[in-house]
Amino acid sequence: MVIGISLRNELRGPLQNQSVWYKNVKKGAKTIHKANPNLLIIISGLNYDIDFTFLKRKPLNLLNMRNKIVYEIHRYAFTEGQANWFLTQPLNKVCDRIKKEIMNKSGFLLKGKNAAPLFVSEFGADQKGMNPSGNLFMGCLLTFLVDFDLDWAVWALQGNYYTRQGKPGMDEPFGMFNNTWNSLRSPQYHAKLQLIQQKLQDPKSKKPKYYLLFHPQSGKCLNVATNNVVQASSCIGASRWIYHGDRTSIRLTGTSSCLTTSREGMPFTLSKDCNNSEKSRWKLASNYQLSNIDENGKELCLDFDTNSSSNKVLVRKCVGLDGKSIDNPQSQWFKLVSTNVY
């Protein structure tokens, strides 16, 4: 078990400033360390816990506690008034922009001489699925979490409150439990978290890396079923893949088989023809979409329809590659997730 103490939740408002932050964070960290040197010390940023940019100029320098400092951030679709972006702008660009912002304001802490763990201690969405921006945001955030194998916590566990805003039994639509606390509010939402509950990167591992093919909209991974049909299903024990970059094959580890397509609207399968066929050569059409060229010379993307009763993954016309369309491409988002955990 790992135990830590967070100094302060979501600093905000006109009284927040960097000089007070440095003073009180150092004081709080030293107090915790003195009381119990075995505890992790979890430190929040400014502006609703999203901003650590000031640490680029002036690191915290708690050197005797360096191995127990953890920085935490929060992120939602509505962070910094960005919810409308998901509905009015091309989604690939929106996700790129948000992840770039996260890296600039906090993700930089993962790298460099002052590198430290980053804990996404709050994220979430309306689990009734009634908020379109929140639904789209989840797919974007999941691609960020799997990239860095970050630890995380969902807001929130509770299904309702004794009283809130003067209302007894007020419902919590972001809650993992329903409002009677006897079952999950949304098994579909919970399923999306399956992969990020697994350890993906082991710094002590000497084994070669491989990839999982992750579909963030559904939370499923690509797996090889009977008759060499590839389908989207559980990420637990998911099929492992090898990929060497644009215009190369995606091979099933331990075999001579690779992913291949035939024509639009058809499932893709495994093939032994991995070196000479355009149908078996894949590229990153965007930061989220994998495409190849079918037998008719047409560029097609992997596509999994979460509303379908079938688990088969098809190839369809790529959506949103022009950087202008606001059509939702998330059914085509497949993330190559690097892992070295066996």
Structural account:
With 342 residues, the chain is an alpha+beta fold. It has 2 domains: 4-155, Glycosidases (TIM Barrel); 210-339, Trefoil (Acidic Fibroblast Growth Factor, subunit A) (Trefoil), CATH 2.80.10. The protein is 17% helix and 22% strand. It has helices spanning 18-35, 85-88, 91-105, 132-148, 187-191, and strands at residues 4-6, 40-44, 69-74, 118-123, 151-154, 163-164, 167-168, 210-215, 220-224, 230-233, 241-243, 250-252, 258-260, 269-271, 283-284, 290-293, 299-303, 314-317, 335-339.
Provide a short characterization of the protein structure.
The protein is of the alpha+beta class. The chain has five helices and 19 strands. The strands form six sheets. The chain has a five-stranded parallel beta sheet, with helices on one face.
Outline the secondary-structure elements.
Blueprint: E1 4-6, H1 18-35, E2 40-44, E3 69-74, H2 85-88, H3 91-105, E4 118-123, H4 132-148, E5 151-154, E6 163-164, E7 167-168, H5 187-191, E8 210-215, E9 220-224, E10 230-233, E11 241-243, E12 250-252, E13 258-260, E14 269-271, E15 283-284, E16 290-293, E17 299-303, E18 314-317, E19 335-339
Parallel strand pairs: 1-2, 2-3, 3-4, 4-5
Antiparallel strand pairs: 6-7, 8-9, 8-19, 9-10, 11-12, 13-14, 15-16, 16-17, 17-18
